[in-house]
Please model this.
Amino acid sequence: MLKFLLNSTFRAIVASYDTPERKGARGERRVHNALTFGLRENDYRVLSDLILPAARGTTQIDHLILSRFGIFVIETKNMSGWIFGETNQEKWTQVQNRRKRSFQNPLRQNYAHVKAVQEILQVDENALHNLVVFTGSAEPKTVMPDSVAWGLKDLGRLIALQNEQVFSDAQVNAYAQKLRDQSFENTKAVRQEHVENLRKKSTAKAHVANAALASDTATTTCPRCGSKMVKRTNRKTGDVFLGCANFPRCKGTRKAT
Model:
């Protein structure tokens, strides 16, 4: 009995240690330490875990690097398993232990962060670099965009590729100060408010999507049996209308829009 209790306690501790939030925080710490100690201090300024004002609320940036060679906005993903995704896909897929899980395309997610920084600093978008780094054991199983790094060394390589000066030291200093002035104090209350804003945005998006689906369903399903409608042409008049796919068993129709 004691052994069972100890095993149960150990599993509970491991489970609490491996929550997505804690895994994410560990990955962000690794990236922050690698950037802080791996990049030349005279050339790069590393800012991590920034909460900045954005349209309709706030945005939280994992890592931001200011340099003469541009501004790097970095999203960290501490994940394992196989990763499938493309640049323009809304969702990417993680496959682990034969289980699939969808998650937001991190490049799209980070683009909102990039736009928030651009809005605050008023710089050319070409000087901003949207980068994503996977810090766990995850492996890509599709051809990934060039701006996605697989590990810290690969992230360093992507940063080093930008070697043409676009800002002066004075500009870099001014941008760093402006971001510090604009950023919110990273307290528990501020983080909770940020999460609540994200929840509200997600709920609003879901309501819009459900409303659109309901509207679409109301005009594209058969009013008699609920089946799919297909476009048909009246052979006498040449008019196009929507007819039930179960015709002739069902003769439901709608006007074509």
About this structure: The longest strand covers residues 44-54. Residues 188-220 form the longest helix (33 residues).
